[in-house]
Amino acid sequence: MSSTVSILIPACNAERWIGSAIQSGLDQSWPKIEVIVVEDGSTDQTLAVAKRYESARVKVMRQDHRGAAAARNTALREAQGDFLQYLDADDFLSADKIQEQVTLL
């Protein structure tokens, strides 16, 4: 199967965790992933930390603070994947999570 999975991360004042959340997306055993981070008006360094990961596989966006639901919707509009994985900025995925789910599908 060649499906792409979009990992959508809303982030507000998540400087301490956002790097680990993004890295857990990049560390997936499933090769076709994209990570979309929407920084939602943080007052800390969340955006700066997220920007360190920006690449062909990681897109980082910023919006004025509108809340987690609005940030998720912004990420959803940008997603190019066949499947979606929502991930809060203070959580992380086990390395085989997406592989296991896509295989079951």
Q: Biggest sheet, strands in spatial order?
A: 3-2-1-4
What level of helicity do the residues show? 25-40%
Q: H/E element string?
A: EHEHEHEH
Residue fraction in strands: 15-25%
Distance between termini? Answer: 10 Å
Number of strands: 4
Please give the radius of gyration in angstroms.
Answer: 13 Å
Q: What's the mean pLDDT score?
A: 97
The major beta sheet can be summarized as:
4 strands, parallel
Structural class: alpha/beta
| Gross morphology | globular
> What count of helical segments does DSSP give?
4
Poorly predicted regions are none
Protein described:
The protein has helices spanning 18-26, 46-51, 68-78, 97-104, and strands spanning 5-11, 33-40, 58-63, 83-86. Strands 3-2-1-4 form a four-stranded parallel β-sheet, with helices on both faces. 32% of the residues lie in helices and 24% in strands. Helix 2 (46-51) links the parallel strand 2 and strand 3 (58-63). The mean pLDDT is 97. The longest helix is centred in the last third of the chain and has 11 residues, at 68-78. The protein is an alpha/beta fold.
